[in-house]
Write a structure and sequence with these properties.
eight-stranded mixed β-sheet, globular, single chain, alpha/beta, 33% helix, Rossmann fold, binds S-adenosylmethionine, 13 strands, 242 residues
């Protein structure tokens, strides 16, 4: 039984401004990853399973914010990382329609728990109806509420954390989960390139500014090591130093 607790595809196009490192470069239509490369990458990544394909399609057809879904290539990366890590406790911050939760679930230990938090009831309802079709869905607990309140109420030491909710709170989420990250644990933060807007100078918009502040925060944190990947909208993989 599912536990239900109350509680681009980007081709990042910088539409204005200048690249921080190339101040004389006009970026009206600069693509970080070309469509050609995106297509090639997609063609050489294992296909989505039927359930993920269905969730992807239905989200694109029915949700006005469908671009928020992790999608094929990022989803496969999340599931491979999960399979390699074999986590016992997974935390996801920002469930949306449940796509990435089901990718992360693929590597979870058979006696493990995946906790995912969503603030919007409507999205939580959609995720829940999607989870019903998934193998091992009894290992998922969906919390409906504000992650800032839910995270401190969860007792676990996390092996895998996916931060993918409101961008202005990334530093807060990071500081909440880092002390409870296990020795082998990894935090993955999504959208760290924020549609290329973090490359503009000056950076505009509160979300891009918040993401840039988060990236700087992690870069200057002597407790961790990290790598930034240009997958989709940018991923930051973070591990605590021993
Ligand atoms: C980018 S979407 C998540 C996408 C999903 N992880 C995926 O890859 O399919 C971000 C989600 O976080 C939710 N959210 C925003 N602020 C939140 C908060 N404070 N607590 C919990 N969820 C939040 C939003 O409602 C939205 O559904």
């Amino acid at each position: 039984m599912l536990k239900f607790l109350k509680g681009s595809i980007i081709k990042p196009t910088v539409t204005s401004g200048l690249l921080r490192f190339f101040p004389s470069f006009d970026l009206m239509s600069f693509e970080i990853i070309s469509t050609l490369a995106e297509n090639y990458i997609g063609q050489h990544t294992s296909a989505e399973d039927e359930l993920l394909k269905k969730i992807n399609k239905e989200t694109v057809e029915n949700h006005p914010l469908a671009h928020m879904l992790s999608g094929h290539v990022q989803g496969k990366l999340l599931s491979l990382i999960s399979k390699i890590l074999a986590p016992k406790y997974i935390l996801e911050i920002g469930t949306f329609t449940g796509y990435s939760a089901l990718c992360l679930l693929k590597g979870l230990q058979s006696d493990g728990e995946l906790h995912t938090i969503e603030i919007r009831q409507e999205d939580a309802d959609t995720a829940l109806s999607n989870f019903k079709f998934a193998k091992n869905n009894n290992l998922i607990t969906l919390h409906v509420g504000n992650a800032k309140e839910v995270i401190p109420s969860l007792p676990h030491e996390w092996d895998l954390v996916f931060i993918d909710a409101d961008k202005v709170s990334y530093i807060e989420y990071y500081e909440l989960v880092l002390p409870r990250l296990s020795k082998k644990g990894i935090i993955i933060a999504d959208n760290v390139l924020f549609h290329g807007q973090v490359l503009e100078q000056p950076i505009k918009g509160k979300n891009a500014l918040a993401i840039d502040a988060f990236n700087e925060h992690v870069t200057n944190d002597s407790r961790v090591e990290q790598v930034m990947l240009s997958v989709r909208d940018g991923l930051l993989l973070i591990k605590k130093l021993e």
